[in-house]
Design a protein that fits this description.
InterPro entries: Arc_rbn_hlx_hlx, Ribbon_hlx_hlx. By secondary structure, the chain is mainly α. The chain has a domain of 44 residues: Arc Repressor Mutant (Orthogonal Bundle). It contains 3 helices and no strands.
């Protein structure tokens, strides 16, 4: 993978807020969403270089990943790979 460039980007606050909401809807960070949108725009304009690397994959590996690859940093979960979230569920109105 080629080295990643770090840049300072100044945005209008409402543009940043809209990007952050969109990123949240698609389970991406705001930075990843900006890169995604820029890559789409470059591809659509025919300006995306041929040698550009793929978007980095972040988060939990897919279900079919090898056990050795998925074991690093994962929470303990049941057989389908999902951690038990019952303790994080919000209480009902009669349980507060």
């Amino acid at each position: 993978m080629s080295p990643r460039k770090q840049i300072l980007l100044r945005l209008d606050a409402s543009v940043h807020d809209a990007l952050a909401r969109w990123a949240g809807d698609e389970l991406r960070s705001t930075t990843a969403q900006i890169e995604y949108v820029l890559r789409q725009a470059l591809a659509q304009a025919g300006r995306l270089p041929d040698d550009v690397g793929k978007m980095p994959r972040r988060g939990r590996p897919p279900k079919g990943a090898a056990a050795g690859e998925a074991a690093h940093g994962d929470q303990a979960g049941d057989e389908d790979g999902q951690a038990d979230r019952a303790d994080q569920a919000s209480p009902g109105p009669d349980q507060e």
